[in-house]
Amino acid sequence: MDKAEIYYFSGSGNSLAVARDVGIRLNADITPVMSLVDLESIDTEANVIGFVFPIYDFKPPKIMEKIIPKIKNIESKYIFAICTYGIAPAKSLKHIEKTIKSCGGCLSAGVAVEMPQSGIGSGTVTKAQQEKMFENWKNRLDGVCDYISNRRAGEIETSILFFSLFKPRIIKIYPIFFVFLKHLIFEGIDSLAFTSNEKCTGCGTCQRICPQNNIEIIENKPVWSDHCANCFACLNWCPNGAISLGKAKMGIKNYHHPDIKISDMIS
Ligand SMILES: Cc1cc2nc3c(=O)[nH]c(=O)nc-3n(C[C@H](O)[C@H](O)[C@H](O)COP(=O)(O)O)c2cc1C
After folding, report:
1. 139 with 63: CB under 8 angstroms?
2. Residue 157 is part of a domain; what is its CATH number?
């Protein structure tokens, strides 16, 4: 009987929800990658390994690339990867495939799952669009799990970014993207740093939820350090909506996956 293990990273809970859905069906243990990052090596008995992660800037989060080389005997495992994306998967799964290959392993299945946008432009996704994305994933779940359970190989999903840029939902993000660029060019990267406003009560949720331990509460206010993964967890999970990305309005609305609780993220 195959033993399966899933390693995930998640900022707003989308990838955790997907990891959990697949984990239940494959009877797999699911482990946050942050709990592995300080290990010298990852020695698992599992012969099926899954990576589930979001796409940031059309690439997997850097942490995924860090943990893959630590996995012992990776060449003997059946490996699958699932990315969740808000705009387009582009070649993200190919990035992961390359990393796995450079460590002697082989990515057998790469699945891209559309989920609500969790960063800039999150407010442009309507509730109906969100529901449709969740429904589409639920409809694919059995097929994906059958593919993995049967150890099938060869399907690595990619998309041509150019075509995704013309979807009506994505066109709505353009003006926001220009505001972002304007800030970046004329006011510098510091103007796009996370900040808290007067609604902040100093409750420390952002500190606890940050997967990178990048936030300290000093004098009842969050202070961000310099190793942010850009996952937006602090902003999305703030119970008071008190965190923003600089002063610019960038169409960001607090979002987190409806099936994921703050306690799931922290544990
Ligand atoms: C900083 C940041 C950058 C992102 N960049 C992309 C991107 O380049 N392409 C894309 O399709 N989605 C992008 N997204 C959307 C996320 O990939 C998507 O919402 C994902 O499901 C979030 O998963 P999570 O909740 O597990 O972190 C980005 C989100 C954030 C916060």
Report:
1. no
2. 3.40.50.360
